[in-house]
């Protein structure tokens, strides 16, 4: 018995939009693979390695993360984030710093060990990505950045909607109309 398969996803037709989304899916898969390799080299769980990168990126931007902000960035509860930060501290990668006038506020800071190990790990990938970006016109990069912001906003909305009790309790027929 042969059954005709419906296209997946059913809304998007073959063409440039579907090609773009497939390219983003492929990039996300490669990025996830890099995260797994990074975690292995740092002797961390993937989530912990991703959290360490969030701490490093925030420091580079001049705004260190609080544990609450880190929890938002890695989509964990405060309890799970506390356990994660404890593991990063035990591994020697982060310290909790009380540098605010309100001593109850804590900032997460990377250690020299974290900076040394991640620099050794990420220098080559950064060079290769920089070389790939050199092959793209600066105007196209700006347009791609704007497009990615629009798509990230759409995914943010989708994720918020999927996380609501209304969605989780909805009948399957309603979920198909998403």
Automatic annotation (TrEMBL):
GO terms for molecular function: DNA-binding transcription factor activity. Residues 17-156 form the HTH marR-type domain. This is MarR family transcriptional regulator. PROSITE patterns: HTH_MARR_2. InterPro entries: HTH_MarR-typ, MarR/SlyA-like, WH-like_DNA-bd_sf, WH_DNA-bd_sf. One of its GO terms (biological process) is response to stress. It comes from the Bacteria. SMART domains: HTH_MARR.
């Amino acid at each position: 018995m042969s059954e005709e398969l419906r296209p997946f996803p059913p809304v998007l037709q073959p063409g440039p939009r579907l090609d773009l989304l497939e390219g983003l899916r492929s990039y996300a898969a490669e990025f996830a693979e890099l995260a797994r390799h990074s975690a292995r080299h740092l002797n961390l769980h993937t989530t912990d390695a991703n959290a360490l990168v969030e701490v490093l990126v925030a420091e580079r931007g001049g705004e260190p993360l609080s544990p609450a902000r880190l929890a938002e960035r890695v989509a964990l509860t405060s309890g799970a984030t506390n356990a994660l930060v404890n593991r990063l501290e035990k591994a020697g990668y982060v310290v909790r710093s009380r540098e605010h006038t309100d001593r109850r506020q804590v900032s997460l800071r990377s250690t020299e060990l974290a900076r040394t190990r991640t620099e050794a790990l990420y220098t080559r990938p950064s060079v290769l990505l920089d070389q790939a970006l050199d092959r793209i016109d600066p105007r196209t990069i700006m347009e791609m950045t704007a497009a990615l912001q629009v798509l990230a906003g759409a995914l943010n909305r989708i994720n918020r909607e999927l996380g609501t009790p209304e969605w989780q309790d909805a009948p399957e027929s309603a979920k198909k109309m998403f």
